[in-house]
Write a structure and sequence with these properties.
The complex is a heterodimer. Chain A is an alpha/beta fold. Chain A is built from 20 helices and 23 strands. The longest helix of chain A has 20 residues. The N and C termini of chain A lie far apart (59 Å). Chain B has 12 helices and 11 strands. Classes of the chains: A alpha/beta, B alpha/beta. β9 of chain A pairs antiparallel with β11 of chain B.
């Protein structure tokens, strides 16, 4: 039987199942195959905080969405074209996101009376006509897998566990994905359990063959490779890119990296990744708590290391006092905040941009610090280097605001040439700087206002620093009113003077009346929305802030040169508050705080409304 | 590594050729504790002890938290970091773990170390980072003007406890032993010779050494340790702990109790072979812990000296070893290779 092959320019697949079904792994492998094939892609994992919520329930549903295309894309996609539902809970939890006409591949074996009842289905939706708006493919994924593995010395339960690989095989056939990498991956992953490796490979191949032979799938789809900029690519998640960026920052600053960290979702993967790279001179210290994590990083910085702490919002709250100490002692320090839904514990695995004002103001006293925010998973690499550059050059703590969406999402990354990375090294101070041959630890560089960084072990520069206000120059304890006023203003001026590049505006025709502004992880959805508007003939300008403090010098000018400024944020208007106060511009905010990234279609609608309104 | 853990606590810290004296360790800052404070005696003892180590002054760092005692680093002409309340052990851990060439000291008090910073203290102890922690215990909050502290006796009447404090105090020695400390000692501000002998052992120990120093606050808790200073009784209540020596005071001796524990007996009533001989190096901390409980009820007899001193690899050494092992296995890190390390593909 010759099957029809249909050409598509892009596809969005969502794998959904129980949190024990291995959906993240399935998604990862499909992504790897897709990357290898050469499509552009973007991914969005979505999983519960519970490691294993009760099986078959709605809270236990874990999903992985992948958008791939024959052109460059910016987001993991708004709505799936295909939903793989491993059980009734996965169907029910995701059906609302599924546009009419989309494909549903459902594991009919799991649609038992009991499982249906668990999620409140009175009747089996695969059997009544409630899904008539969609194209439903009911496949017996579990029993087909068990049958395929009959020859293996496996319990039925172990055989059933390979059903995700069967599904992966089927989807790989359906979308013409290469299979070699997945086979190799399974061999490596289960190197110590060859029987399990063979079984998973057999299940994977059985899924492929099922697609090839069954009449249930008469069409397969092809998405041609994308024409991306020439270079070497790899797929990378935000957390991994951030970890690599920190290592690169260590190499480029010639400072040993010291990470003090306490495990917290969604930042822990940075700790995990860095702990694998000790041969770069990376020290990872899993501290007793968040405070000790940043404290140890600051202590290491005092000793001449690139001190870093990684955390999420609740951890930043705990670290605030130590960050204030870094502000006043003027030591380089990186605080990586992988933002998540708050307040308090909030929704640990869901994304938000709600820590901006905490990063700006969440310390006692006047304690300004620079803030940098990456705009895509791979940009976490460059943003980490930029944050380190500022920290080292200006001797200041810097806050790097990633978020759960960037951390766990992935995209192809065109690898930079190491020789092209910026040199961010600074010299330690090794000689006295006072008129009488004394050392003045708070005598500043006249241009940057940075103080000297003299580390223990340097003879003749023994000095004391601390949290008490310091006299200008000598750094001795001072309660002098005018000195305090001077020091407060000087610290503020130092941060205000950090060199940040101008804000660039993408205004294709130069005559747009509306500017849509963003910061951090909203870049993808905003840019995708802007494309839609322009495609349909609308005019809109786009600008994206990477430096939140200090803001680029031309920010006010840019904002004032448009009739309207729209600012979508996944918070209740935190950047809008800052910009309104600073530039007296009547920003139009668009805010959703659902723990999810914006959708391109949603933002396109909002932009269009702003364009259309008087 | 064996060399590092066998009593050569500062073998990685560079030595000086220059002869040092007390003056070399005095900073130009005016000392501002209350007149009569026990901190003066400790400062003088430390300043006159440091030259004995013969270390390069620039490789010595004092880190402190918040409290009267935490002003200590300002008065020493070494590197110093006066940090925030309770966090000195954490900050010092990062410094010591990344710089094995430094002699790192933590200066803390009973409130700083045992109340707000309790968590960092116990974890520093169990990790065995190469730190000397000097815990100035005056059993009161001084800098905030006289509230009871986590080492104040039950029923302490202070500004915040007009009807007496309710909570049982910590015994810092028991706490440290329970937290897997490898070196635990107690000394007193007024006995410079003893204090310096303990510092000598503490600095020779590689790992975390905790030294509790009874320190008099003459403003808010005067004479808290008077029994140990009163010539009439001090020799009777002070039980000197010296490794390999019988544990005795002038009139008392520590012996095995009938219930399997230990107890204090009149020295005259027991024979020499009944008296417990101190073994600070015993791997099992039980006896050291039992010794730490002998001063309850308070100050009838107080063990002074080194309770426990065992060899255990220091954290910074283990950390450095893992890094060396990683390099030995796969070579030094190469950034290009790291970035190219995943599944890559080429376009164009």
């Amino acid at each position: 039987m010759t099957k029809q092959v249909q050409q598509l320019d892009r596809v969005i697949i969502r794998f959904a199942g129980d949190s024990g079904d291995g959906m993240q792994l399935t998604g990862d492998r499909f992504t790897a195959g897709t990357a290898e094939f050469g499509n552009d892609l973007s991914t969005l994992p979505n999983f519960p905080a519970e490691i294993r919520a009760p099986a078959g329930t709605l809270p236990g549903v874990s999903s992985f969405q992948l958008h791939f295309a024959d052109h460059d894309i910016l987001t993991p996609g708004d709505a799936p074209n295909v939903l793989v539902a491993m059980n009734p809970a996965a169907l029910k939890a995701n059906l609302g996101d599924l546009p009419r006409g989309a494909d549903i591949i459902a594991n009919i074996d799991e649609f038992t009376k009991r499982n249906l009842q668990k999620v409140g289905y009175a009747a089996n939706p695969l059997e009544d006509d409630s899904l008539s708006e969609w194209r439903v493919h009911a496949v017996a994924l579990t029993s087909l897998t068990v049958k395929a593995l009959e020859g293996f010395a496996l319990s039925k339960k172990d055989a059933e566990r390979s059903k995700n690989m069967f599904a992966l095989g089927l989807l790989s056939w359906l979308y013409h994905r290469p299979t070699e990498h997945t086979v190799k991956f399974l061999e490596q992953k289960f190197a110590k359990k060859p029987e399990i490796a063979k079984a998973n490979i057999a299940a994977f191949q059985a899924g492929w063959n099922y697609g090839e032979t069954t009449e249930a799938f008469s069409v397969s789809y092809e998405v041609k490779p994308a024409q991306l900029a020439p270079g070497v690519y790899r797929n990378i998640s935000g957390n991994q890119a951030l970890a690599y960026g920190l290592i690169a920052a260590s190499v480029q600053s010639k400072l040993p990296l010291f990470l003090g960290s306490y495990p917290i979702t969604p930042a822990s993967d940075i700790l995990h990744e860095l702990s694998k790279h000790k041969r770069f001179g990376v020290r990872t210290f899993q501290a007793e708590d968040e405070i000790a994590g940043v404290g140890a990083a600051l202590g290491a910085a005092f000793g001449g290391a690139l001190g870093v702490t990684t955390t999420s919002g609740p951890g930043v709250a705990l670290k605030a006092e130590t960050v204030g100490l870094a502000v006043t002692t003027e030591l380089p320090l990186l605080i990586v905040d992988v933002q998540r839904a708050g307040p308090s514990t909030g929704m640990p695995t869901k994304t938000e941009q709600t820590d901006l004002l905490m990063a700006m103001f969440g310390r006692n006293g006047e304690s300004p610090l620079p803030i940098v925010a990456p705009m895509s998973p791979s940009d976490c690499f460059d943003a980490a280097i930029e944050a380190a550059r500022i920290a080292v050059k200006y001797r200041t703590p810097v806050m790097l605001l990633s978020d759960g969406y960037l951390a766990n999402g992935s995209e192809p990354w065109r690898l930079p040439e190491v020789s092209e990375l910026p040199d961010i090294s600074q010299e330690f101070t090794t000689a006295p700087n006072g008129a009488d041959g004394e050392f003045l630890p708070f005598k500043r560089d006249t241009e940057t206002l940075a103080r000297p960084w003299a580390i223990p072990g340097t003879p003749g520069l023994e000095h004391r620093i601390g949290g008490i206000e310091k006299a200008d120059g000598t750094g001795n304890i001072s309660y002098d009113p005018n000195n305090h006023d001077l020091m407060v203003r000087t610290r503020a001026a130092k941060i205000a003077g950090v060199d940040v590049p101008d804000l660039e505006v993408d205004d294709a025709d130069g005559d747009a009346k509306v500017l849509v502004l963003g910061w951090g992880s909203t870049y993808g959805p905003i840019a995708a929305a802007v494309r839609r508007i322009r495609k349909s003939g609308g005019k809109v300008a786009q600008a994206h802030l990477r430096h939140l403090n200090p803001l680029p010098a031309n920010t006010g000018e840019v904002l004032k040169s448009y009739d309207k400024v729209l600012l979508p944020e996944i918070n209740l208007g935190q950047l809008a508050l800052l910009l309104r106060a600073r530039y007296l511009v009547d920003i139009i905010s668009y805010n959703r705080v659902r723990g999810l990234p914006f959708k391109a279609e949603e933002l396109a609608g909002v932009i269009q409304d702003v364009i259309d309104s008087d | 590594m064996t060399e590092l853990i066998n009593g050569k606590g500062l073998s990685l810290v560079p030595k000086t050729d220059t002869k040092q004296g007390l003056k070399d360790f005095k900073s130009d800052q005016e000392v501002r504790w209350c007149p009569g404070c026990g901190d003066y005696a400790i400062l003088a003892a430390v300043q006159s002890f440091l030259p004995e180590l013969g270390l390069k002054r620039e490789n010595i760092v004092f880190v402190s938290g918040i409290g009267c005692s935490s002003r200590f680093p300002y008065y020493l002409n070494t590197y110093g970091f006066h940090s925030i309340h309770g966090r000195a052990p954490a900050i010092a851990t990062g410094l010591a773990a990344s710089r094995p060439d430094l002699s790192v000291w933590v200066i803390t008090g009973d409130g700083d170390a045992l109340s707000i910073g309790g968590n960092h203290l116990i974890h520093a102890l169990r990790r065995n980072v190469n730190l000397n922690i000097l815990l100035f215990n005056n059993r009161i909050y001084g800098l905030t003007k006289g509230q009871y502290s986590p080492t104040s006796e039950v029923g302490k009447i202070t500004k915040s406890t007009p009807m007496g404090s309710l909570d049982k105090p910590f015994n810092p020695i028991s706490l440290a032993i329970g937290a897997e400390a490898s070196f635990v000692a107690r000394t007193i501000d007024s006995d410079r010779k003893h204090l310096q002998s303990v510092l000598r052992e503490a600095t020779a120990h590689r790992g975390t050494s905790l030294v509790e120093i009874y320190q008099n606050c003459n403003i808010f808790n005067d004479n808290a340790f008077e029994q140990l200073k009163d010539p009439e009784i001090r020799d009777d209540i002070t039980l000197r702990l010296e490794h390999g020596q019988p544990i005795v005071s002038a009139s008392k001796a520590v012996v095995r109790a009938a219930n399997g524990g230990i107890e204090v007996a009149d020295r005259a009533s027991v024979s020499a072979d009944q008296i417990l001989v101190h073994d600070a190096h015993h791997p099992d901390p039980s006896l050291a812990f039992a010794l730490s409980r002998l001063d309850e009820p308070a100050f009838e007899h107080v063990p002074i000296g080194i309770f426990r001193s065992i060899d255990r690899p220091a954290y910074d050494v283990l950390m450095a070893e893992q890094m060396e092992e990683a390099v030995a296995q796969k070579g030094a890190g190469d950034l290009s290779e790291l970035l190219m390390g995943g599944d890559t593909w080429r376009i164009g």
